[in-house]
Amino acid sequence: MKSDDSINGVLLVDKGQDMTSHDVVAVARRCLNTKKIGHCGTLDPMATGMLILVVGTATRIQDLLMSEDKEYTGTMTFGATTNTQDAEGEILEQKPVPDFSKEQIVEAFDQFRGDFYQTPPMVSAVKIDGVPLYKLARQGKEVVREPRFVRVYNYEINRVELPQVDFRVVCSKGFYVRTYAHDIGQKLGCGAHLSALRRTRSGHFTLEPGKHVTFDMLKGGQRDACLSSMLSLYDVSKMRGA
Question: Is 129 a catalytic residue?
Fold first, then answer.
């Protein structure tokens, strides 16, 4: 079947666990029968939530949409560091978790508020000399990574049941929540890794009922339902106040 090049717009997908962002794009291409689709900001396989797909002429605003701030909810687990900084990796070190007070945890979170530099994890898509870091990590190599300037606009601690802490964070583009969990664990001296993550907002987009689709809808070929959930470029510019 010939690719349908008449489809243009932004599709918000609630990504499930255990799939890559690339998997979602591939399934969306089949469902919509169109080749020109990109995504705005990779979500790790473990993570769920907001994945913005740009279709057709909307690919022109991909960089613009990727540059906006993001909001996540997640869980970090103290007492173990992993080679990926999340629950998918191999445990590198385990330490007992002291009976931290809420104030001690807040103090550690406060160290990572506002503007600061963050070193990307080895298992990431950041490229060095054209090679993604995760490929070097698979070869057992560790290389020096350039710290990146990032910003945490706001955070909340929603639950403390040690060794776990649930949180919400609003951050700039290029921010690694895995590294955030790792660094807070280092600050507290017991180590930590990210054990759950959900992207709840990206720029002006949230997962409102009827305004987004699921992976199952795409996989099930519910083309009409997906097309009716798609935002036009006019809708997007209105939402962004343009």
Answer: no
Tally of structural domains, the chain: 2
What is the distance of C-alpha 183 from the center of its chain?
17
DSSP letter (8 states) at residue 85: S
Kindly report, residue by residue over 56-114, the tens digit of the pLDDT.
999 999 999 999 999 999 999 999 999 999 999 999 999 999 999 999 999 999 999 99
Strand partners, 115: 151
- Residues 95, 19 share a domain: no
State the catalytic residue, choosing from 5, 14, 18, 44: 44
Cα 46 to the chain's mean position, in Å? 10
29: which 2 tokens? 């291409």
Do 163 and 228 lie in a common domain?
no
Longest CA–CA span in the chain (Å) reads: 62
Contacts (Cβ under 8 Å, ≥6 apart) of 92: 81, 82, 83
> The CATH number of the domain where 213 resides is what?
3.30.2350.10
Residue 215 domain-assigned?
yes
Instruction: Give me the domain span that covers residue 169.
Output: 70-120+147-201
d(C-alpha 55, C-alpha 36), whole Å: 6
What phi and psi values does residue 210 have, to the nearest 5 degrees?
A: 80, -5
Tokens of 157: 């601690």
